[in-house]
Design brief:
The longest helix has 48 residues. By secondary structure, this protein is an alpha+beta fold. Strand 4 and strand 5 form a beta hairpin. The chain is built from 33 helices and 24 strands. Strands 1, 4, 5, 6, 7, 8, 9, 10, 11 and 12 form a ten-stranded mixed β-sheet that branches. Strands 21-17-22-16-14-23-13-24 form an eight-stranded mixed β-sheet. Strands 15, 18, 19 and 20 form a four-stranded antiparallel β-sheet that branches.
């Protein structure tokens, strides 16, 4: 019998065995298919959500051949891609008063074009008033397909119709058929349909036909001086070239002479040689993304761990299958088969079931991606260009599933071939002592793998990160038998069922260890991704610079307009009715010296100035902006740089414009603002303000308990009231004031450096006027609340606005979200199937338990606790294994952040490692508990009749 004949017989036996034990075979196929499903779905999703060049061009220019835009700098030279262009004569002056280009003269002869122009506008909503962009774009035209698509309803036609995006309708409470008013000039429009931008599903915008909004708005502004003209943006054109010709390179060069930059579809996809491109001959290259064509470190690590996960998940399935088939394998030995044939049968099972699992996984992965497409598109914020299937990648995934299934069957095949025929026929498992070398070797491999991964992180080598992470997981895998054996010692003092479960796990390590390894592999991937995501979120929160204190809203008015100040009480009432205000409000006033620069700012000497003087000294200057900053940055660690970034000296560089304080950050207010906005709960600070002593929030401006205010009392002749009181030359005053210095952490208070009592400001000869109020709110105002407040303020007379702090952007990278979803699915599926296999393998022990008189409840409890032991041990070890790649990947990010910080010292290098405690708690508690409850519920209470072995 030749080799092929032997393998043909082995495969036939394996196929018949798989058909005979359908339930066990289905579990084996599922263990192989589950990770293949995740990898397939991830691959298809990544390819589908990442647009190709052609798909991105369609998103930018619809069905047109080119996009024409006015560069605004005169004649230009450009690259064929349109992303780089330069002025032909760099020394030529720009004529800002030059008439706009007649774009139609730059189009190729025989072409057709439609225009795109947007204008910001204020419109009425179901709740009140909102600001949005209105795009004049003929959405019904065929050239718009691909850039704008109709979701439901009809495209707008005529001068009183609009189309809206779904996010806009959800935020405003409007719907198809609603009527809205463009408040800027009072014209009403009806919403006829819902449209979407396939490459930007979260866009909130309105669409109208050209001439429906901007022209009547401009006409109204020409006749009514109270109506401000529309602040339109540059008009672009989508151009369809002559049929069969398109927009060629000579057409583009001709348009460049008029100062028009062109993005032509055919030139981007098939650019002319550099010898024909003047700008390319000068050495200018197209813009390339920094990571274009390069897989990221997280992606490489995920792929490596996924391959290992397939092997470890399939391993226990084949081990259980081999043990359940030991009698059949023993019969093979009685018929003259040797160890080679036993190994071939088990490996044949791996080949048959691995192939079925791989194909099933690929098919289910494709189906799952198709079914989940709307949800994935919503997360990613863009439509799939198409469901992109790369046949070679699909084949590679299937082959990996098949090969890893075969590798997973290798160890069980070796074990099965070493069993004697007598042990196989009688069902005895024998007793094998655990290797003493393997745990030591595993610990060494674990340490080496972790060290390699960490070194790869510090050196920025993605391959070392992936290789080290897999090596560390393999090392931990070798330690599992010893860890499982130690579990038996933990059962003392526990009730019967958990005590038996722990001892059974320790006694049957050959069954327990592979199951624990499978759960560990699944959990490790989830923990690695969740930890990386949690850390990047913490980093973005640190880098975020708030404009307001969290949990507050600020009502402001244009304080130079007396009518607006008079209407402040009505505006306050509008805010209190519309938002979840807690407590009262803290009023603040704007302060200035001389004539108000918000009114009299014709030239630099026409109004006064006010300055909070920073005392001299190196400790008063931020070293990251001072001389020698780059040399200092080269010596700083991430934590040292973080402390400097949050130091009072570096926080004193500027303030937000919420309180209209300019760079000095001086606000006139009373003690109410301390509790409402600053969140400074110190009676001494409130007492100081009440007594006329300023409260200084940034200690860098204080010296010996005093702060210096420098004022230039300069008056403008147009400011007739004050000019009469202060004629002549400007005077400059410098006043040192005793201040209450707040603790250093309050230097980060957005918008304020000093709170100045009103009586002190007047004593210094400064002018103040009411400017607004601060409120504490129970939650960040919703869009409906903001629109309601805006509408109520406008009804009260307008002239005021409300600002709130929404916090850092909570969105994370779409691919990381998708990875998390698939990792969670694989973890739950693997834990359920693995514990199910372990329970099936322990069925004989449960039958023995019933035979000696144990009640049915003990069987169920024991089965449940056996699965809890397997799942909990695997989850804990998987958590430890998953932290290695997560930490290494963050070290890769840290290296890049430090590199950027040393080039630009004010760039943050903070790269935290934040553990996802909620996810870890869910894994440690939820997965074992779910596995135990399912096992207990599915365990039969009565003893099943078993076939005799002999």
């Amino acid at each position: 019998m030749n080799v092929f004949t032997g393998w043909r017989a082995a495969l036939r036996i394996a196929r018949r065995d798989a058909m005979r034990f359908k339930g066990r075979s289905a579990l084996v196929v599922a263990m192989i298919a589950v990770p293949v499903v995740g990898v397939t779905a991830l691959d298809v999703t990544y390819n589908s959500v990442s647009p190709t060049t052609a798909e991105q061009l369609t998103a930018d220019m619809g069905a047109a051949d080119a996009l024409f835009s006015d560069a605004g700098i005169g004649p230009i030279e450009q690259l064929p891609t349109g992303d780089q262009y330069e002025q032909v004569d760099e020394n030529a002056p720009l004529d800002e008063n030059a008439p706009p280009i007649d774009m139609s003269t730059t189009f190729p002869k025989g072409s057709r074009a439609i225009s795109i122009q947007s204008v910001p506008a204020s419109i009425t909503t179901e709740y009140g008033i909102a600001d949005t962009d209105i795009n004049e774009f003929r959405t019904s035209d065929e050239l718009a397909r691909g850039r704008i698509e109709l979701v439901r309803g009809e495209f707008p036609h005529g001068k009183n119709e609009l189309a809206a995006t779904e996010p806009f309708l959800k935020s405003t409470g409007l719907h198809v058929g609603s009527v809205t008013t463009v408040r800027n000039f009072g014209m009403q429009y009806r919403i006829t349909g819902v449209v979407e931008q396939p490459d930007s599903l979260n866009t909130k915008a309105l669409y109208a036909d050209p001439g429906a909004v901007i022209a009547p708005w401009q006409a109204k502004a020409d006749h009514d001086k109270k109506v401000l003209p529309p602040n339109t943006r540059t008009k672009d054109w989508l151009v369809k070239g002559p049929e069969g010709v398109g927009v060629t390179w000579p057409d583009v060069m001709a348009a460049n002479k008029s100062g028009v930059v062109v993005t032509s579809r055919q030139l981007v996809l098939d650019p002319p040689p550099d010898s024909e491109v003047p700008l390319a001959r000068k050495g200018v290259e197209p813009y390339q993304g920094s990571s274009e064509g390069k897989p990221s470190a997280p992606l490489i690590t995920v792929i490596a761990m996924a391959v290992l996960e397939i092997v470890l998940l399939a391993g226990p399935a084949f081990a259980v299958g081999a043990r359940r088939s030991r009698r059949q394998l023993g019969l093979l030995g009685t018929c003259g088969g040797d160890r080679r044939h036993v190994r071939a049968v088990v490996l044949g099972g791996g080949l048959v079931l691995g192939g079925i699992g791989a194909v099933t996984g690929v098919v289910v992965g494709l189906v799952a991606t198709t079914v989940s497409q709307p949800m994935i598109e919503a997360w990613a914020g863009r439509r799939f260009g198409s469901l992109t299937l790369d046949p070679m990648e699909m084949l590679l995934i299937a082959v990996i599933g098949l090969v890893t299934g075969l590798l997973a069957a290798f160890a069980p095949a070796i074990v099965a071939s070493r069993q004697s025929v007598l042990e196989s026929l009688t069902g005895r498992r024998g007793v094998r002592r655990s290797s003493r070398v393997m745990p030591v070797l595993g610990a060494c491999v674990l340490a080496i793998g972790a060290a390699v991964a960490i070194y790869g992180g510090t050196s920025g080598n993605s391959s070392l990160v992936a290789g080290g992470s897999v090596t560390a997981e393999l090392g931990l895998l070798a330690c599992i038998p010893v860890i499982v054996g130690f579990l038996g010692r933990l059962g003392r003092g526990l009730p019967l069922s958990p005590r038996l479960a722990l001892r059974d796990a320790a006694r049957n390590r050959g069954r327990t260890a592979p199951a624990v390894a499978a759960v560990m592999a699944a959990v490790a991937g989830s923990v690695a991704i969740a930890t990386y995501m949690s850390s990047t979120k913490a980093e973005s929160e640190f880098d975020y610079s708030p404009t307001l204190t969290q949990g507050t809203v600020v009502l402001s008015v244009s304080s130079y307009d007396t009518e607006n100040v008079i209407q402040l009480p009505q505006a306050r009432a509008a805010v209190e009715r519309s938002m979840a205000v807690t407590g009262g409000h803290a009023d603040f006033r704007r302060v200035w010296a001389g004539s108000d620069c918000d009114v009299y700012s014709d030239d630099e000497n026409s109004c006064g100035s006010l300055e909070l003087v920073r005392p001299p000294g190196k400790d008063r200057v931020c070293p990251l902006t001072d001389k020698g900053a780059k040399q200092l940055a080269a010596r700083l660690s991430s934590d040292e740089h973080r402390k400097l970034m949050r130091s009072p000296a570096c926080l004193a560089g500027g303030t937000s414009g919420v309180f209209n304080t300019g760079e000095n950050g001086i606000v006139v207010a009373d003690e109410d603002i301390l509790s409402t906005y600053v969140k400074l709960d110190d009676p001494a600070a409130a007492k100081a303000l009440a007594a006329g002593t300023p409260v200084l929030l940034n200690e860098v401006f204080a010296k010996n308990g005093e702060a210096t205010i420098k004022a230039a009392h300069r008056y403008n002749k147009e400011d007739k009231k004050n000019w009469k009181l202060h004629p002549g030359k400007a005077r400059t005053t410098t006043d040192k004031l005793k201040v209450y210095v707040a603790p250093a952490k309050y230097a980060a208070t957005p918008g304020i450096n000093m709170i100045l009592p009103r009586q002190t400001a007047e004593r210094l000869g400064l002018h103040t006027t009411e400017s607004g109020s601060v409120y504490s709110v129970a939650h960040t105002p919703t869009e409906a609340e903001q629109q309601q407040a805006f509408g109520a303020i406008e009804q009260a007379g307008g002239g005021a606005w409300v600002q709130s702090e929404s916090g850092p952007d909570g969105r994370v990278d779409a691919m990381l979200l998708i990875l998390t979803l698939f990792a969670g699915m694989v973890t739950l599926g693997a834990a359920a199937i693995t514990t199910g296999l372990a329970k099936a393998d322990a069925e004989a022990d449960l039958n023995t338990l019933s035979a000696v008189g144990a009640p049915p409840s003990v069987r169920r409890k024991l089965s449940g606790f056996q699965c809890v032991v397997v799942a909990l041990t695997g989850v804990v070890l998987g958590t430890l294994a998953g932290l290695v790649p997560a930490v290494a990947l963050r070290l890769v990010d840290l290296r890049l952040a430090l590199k950027e910080m040393r080039l630009e010292p004010t760039e943050s290098a903070y790269t935290p490692i934040e553990l996802p405690w909620a996810t870890l708690a869910l894994l440690v508690v939820g997965v074992p508990l779910l596995a135990g409850l399912l096992a207990a519920a599915l365990t039969r209470s009565r003893l099943a009749l078993a076939r005799r072995a002999g």
